[in-house]
């Protein structure tokens, strides 16, 4: 299985369960592994035959700006569904980190895998 990678993508969004978090934006940092077969794109040297990490990164930015979830769990789940629907991604791993949320930790967050890994039944 091949992967397109997006690492340490910083997005700003309204996120949090506490009252003081509802009127500010905070930074989330995302890592994504996106399953695809890169061979057709490589054979033809054609961006149209692969997952465009620039376009996906831009979509994630607009997603973050448009939503105001309480939980990072909800952010992750809804973003995974959006990327699956709009880009036809068969399988992905998404890590959402919220730096600074816990002072003693470098970051806290969630990691999810969604979809069916190509070649695995
Ligand atoms: N599992 C989670 N725990 C907590 C979350 C969360 O989104 N998922 N959020 C908070 C607060 O918003 C916190 O990040 C504020 O610093 C607490 N626990």
UniProtKB/TrEMBL annotation:
InterPro entries assigned to the protein according to its UniProt record, in alphabetical order: Dihydroneopterin_aldolase (IPR006156), FolB_dom (IPR006157), GTP-CH-I_C/QueF (IPR043133)
EC number: 4.1.2.25
Pathway: Cofactor biosynthesis; tetrahydrofolate biosynthesis; 2-amino-4-hydroxy-6-hydroxymethyl-7,8-dihydropteridine diphosphate from 7,8-dihydroneopterin triphosphate: step 3/4
Enzyme kind, highest EC tier: lyase
A single GO BP: tetrahydrofolate biosynthetic process
Superkingdom, taxonomy of origin: Bacteria
Cellular component, GO annotation: cytoplasm
Cell membrane is among the record's keywords: no
Keywords associated with the record: Folate biosynthesis, Isomerase, Lyase
Protein task: Catalyzes the conversion of 7,8-dihydroneopterin to 6-hydroxymethyl-7,8-dihydropterin.
Protein family per UniProt: Belongs to the DHNA family.
Name used for this protein in its record: 7,8-dihydroneopterin aldolase
Species: Halomonas icarae
Gene symbol of the encoding locus: folB
């Amino acid at each position: 299985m091949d992967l397109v990678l997006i690492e340490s993508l910083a997005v700003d969004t309204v996120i949090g369960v506490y009252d003081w978090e509802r009127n500010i934006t905070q930074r989330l940092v995302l890592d994504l592994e996106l399953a695809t077969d890169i061979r057709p794109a490589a054979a033809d040297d054609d961006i149209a035959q692969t997952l465009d990490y620039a376009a996906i990164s831009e979509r994630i930015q607009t997603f973050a700006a448009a939503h105001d979830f309480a939980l990072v769990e909800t952010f992750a789940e809804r973003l995974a569904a959006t990327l699956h629907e709009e880009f036809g991604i068969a399988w992905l791993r998404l890590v959402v980190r919220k730096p600074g949320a816990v002072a003693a930790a470098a970051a806290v967050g969630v990691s999810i895998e969604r979809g069916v890994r190509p070649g695995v039944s």
